[in-house]
Specification:
Glutathione_S-Trfase; GST_C; single chain; Glutathione S-transferase; Thioredoxin-like_sf; 4-stranded mixed β-sheet; about 50% helix
């Protein structure tokens, strides 16, 4: 049995919930109240080394980090979501974009809109005085422009005819762009890609 340790407002958790729905896998869902610091326990650390959500247990195996979870699920249950050669390099590159460019732009920018600046600073590991919201906005525009260019030339991020785990990884926070006060219509290819994902069989929207 798969068990997902989850928070309903987390974009990283949403990636995993969405992928599980798309591949038709049933799972148990365990709520972890990160805002109340319920993740900061020795028990949860045995599941998630950095005490972060999402985390997944698959039998006796524990996997943490949303991208590691997506790859685990694809390798074990849905290999059709893994881009073939020669597109596998592009798939991994866009997984890296999700883990780096998005994680340092749209993800923290959205956080400052859905929780207090003090709470956002705590989760980002900085003092409130060091929250660089204009910098987050500039980095968000930069990555969305690059993604828009890619998607203007390709239906899916890996350059394949069908979506891959890279699309789900990047969609997690792109789906929540409006919560960061981003006008997604300024990036029409990204907007069209988001709609393509919403039309996939089994799609579930963000939220509880």
């Amino acid at each position: 049995m798969l068990t997902l340790y989850d928070h309903p407002r987390s974009g990283n958790c949403y990636k995993v919930r969405l992928f599980l729905a798309l591949i038709g896998k049933t799972y148990q869902r365990t709520f972890v109240d990160v805002l109340a610091r319920k993740n900061q326990t020795a028990e949860f650390e045995r599941v998630s080394a950095f005490q972060q959500v999402p985390a997944l247990t698959d039998g006796a195996t524990a996997i943490w980090d949303s991208h590691a979870i997506l790859l685990h699920l694809a390798h074990h249950y849905a290999p059709e979501w893994l881009a073939p050669l020669p597109s596998i390099g592009a798939m991994h590159a866009w997984l890296s974009v999700s883990a780096n460019e998005i994680a340092n732009s749209l993800q923290p920018l959205r956080l400052t809109h859905v929780v207090s600046n003090a709470e956002a600073a705590h989760h980002l590991g900085v003092s409130e005085a060091l929250l660089d919201i204009p910098g987050m906005q500039a980095r968000t525009d930069r990555f969305l422009c690059r993604m828009n260019k890619r998607l203007a030339e390709n239906r899916w991020l890996a350059g394949t005819d069908v979506p891959s785990v890279a699309d789900i990884a990047c969609y997690g926070y792109a789906a929540l762009a409006e919560e960061a006060a981003i006008d997604i219509t300024a990036y029409p290819a990204v907007a069209a890609w988001r709609e393509r994902i919403r039309q996939l069989p089994g799609y579930v929207p963000p939220g509880p």
